[in-house]
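We now fix the convention by which a protein and its fold are recorded. These numbers are not coordinates but entries in a learned vocabulary of local backbone shapes. A record is reproduced here so that you can trace the correspondence yourselves:
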Amino acid sequence: MPLSDNNPWGIRFMAMIHMANDSGLFHATPAPGRLPLYEAKMIHQFDHRWATYLPSPSGVSGGPGAANAFRLGGAGADGTSRELTEAEKADPAFAVTPRYWVEAAEVEARLKDKGWERGWLMGWRDITNATNERTVIASVVPRVGVGHTMPLFMTSQKPARAAALLANLDSLTLDFIARVKVGGTHLTYGYLKQFPILPPDRYSDADLAFIVPRVLELTYSARDLAPWAADLGHSGEPFPWDPERRAQLRAELDAWYARLYGLSRDELRYILDPADVMGDDYPSETFRVLKHNEIREFGEYRTRRLVLAAWDELESGLIGSR
């Protein structure tokens, strides 16, 4: 996407390292001067530590006290991935184990070609489906190697607005639109260009004051994202990993973005669950998997309750103001 009047974010796309064509660059073990190679399956919304590869029997990577795991990596992975536990995410020193490592010089050369100097990257999962729990899954990650299944987007806007862009991509409102548009299993550049992403001048100072601290808290859960936190004006330790707190912050962001998009409360209710507005016999569904997963885990559709409660609090002025 060229930088032009039709590209107010100044977005440049990048597929950094092709998992097949560039496989000759891959190393099975870490070493000084090598960086982890992130794959799309390792991230989730606002979470750069969603999944990790199992270490090879020859050693152990990450874990409590592994402060150098990100810098040097851990033992080689055995090719099997798993989701991180809550205890692992609660450790700000824990770093995921990739399947491969690549030379830092190779990563830096490719980023230099794009003119990207920030100590972090943003990207999204290419593989998706409108029937998944969420369709658009984007995250900020450290300055590492990144496989092509996680395309990167680089904006000329300042970090605070980049945080707002990330929140926009991970919002329920945009996800609803994506579920209508995406017809296959790939969230391509073409789809992303079609989405009604809010332009940077849509955000007032009040909007950014509400959005950026919440995005910072959601994303800065580990020390390997300290450059990102610094760019957002935070020099302290990572924020505690608290699932209930995170659910509340995300609900507040979803309610805020619904208002930015000009939705009514009933329209937001429809996005969350059409049957809630149209009746139980209504044939359309939006976030069916999310709803069923939460009913199984929490005994309720928690996201709907939290988002609508956040909407009501915003309307009453109990949180934020616009």
Notes: The first strand starts at residue 12 and ends at 14. The two ends are 32 Å apart (CA to CA).
